[in-house]
Design goal:
The chain is of the alpha+beta class. It has one domain: 2-Layer Sandwich (TATA-Binding Protein), CATH 3.30.310.70. 44% of the residues lie in helices and 22% in strands. Strand 4 and strand 5 form a beta hairpin. 18% of the residues are buried.
Length: 144
């Protein structure tokens, strides 16, 4: 019985790691405020739209906690969303795309994102991964 339980736990852990998305962290050469401004400007210049911005620093101030800069920028292309949502509505959990921008204790600003993995929804979406991952790279190049 113990072996069966151990085997089941190992299988679940293995599946979890297989599905996990790869995270990328890019250290910006700019300060926090300038990094956020540059990302917003560059996203728009690439024909995408900023859908939402979450100011974590300000929200935590409301509950008496002080942190350095921390912002999430959600962005995307509505025509990509239209294609994906109509074929695979469960992909809504992953869209829009997002950058998490945060300031470390040493003052450096980091932009984090998960690399695109829409191919898991079928071969039709492999090109979308290629396009999104290229967009992430192009956009973050402007902060290096």
């Amino acid at each position: 019985m113990k072996n069966l339980i151990l085997t089941a736990v190992i299988a679940v852990c293995t599946m979890t790691f297989a599905v996990a998305q790869e995270r990328a962290d890019v250290v910006s050469s700019k300060n926090f405020k300038k990094t956020v401004e540059t990302l917003n400007k560059t996203i728009k210049s690439k024909g995408m739209m900023v859908v939402a911005t979450v100011d974590h620093q300000n929200m935590l101030k409301m509950v008496g906690t002080s942190i350095k800069g921390a912002t999430t920028i959600e962005f995307g292309k509505p025509d990509m969303g239209k294609m994906l949502f109509t074929m695979k509505p469960e992909a809504g959990l992953e869209m829009p795309a997002r950058f998490y921008v945060f300031e470390k204790s040493d003052g450096k600003t980091v932009v984090s994102y998960y690399k695109s993995n829409y191919a898991k929804y079928g071969a039709d979406f492999a090109k979308m991964d290629e396009m999104m991952n290229m967009s992430y790279s192009e956009i973050t190049n402007f902060i290096k």
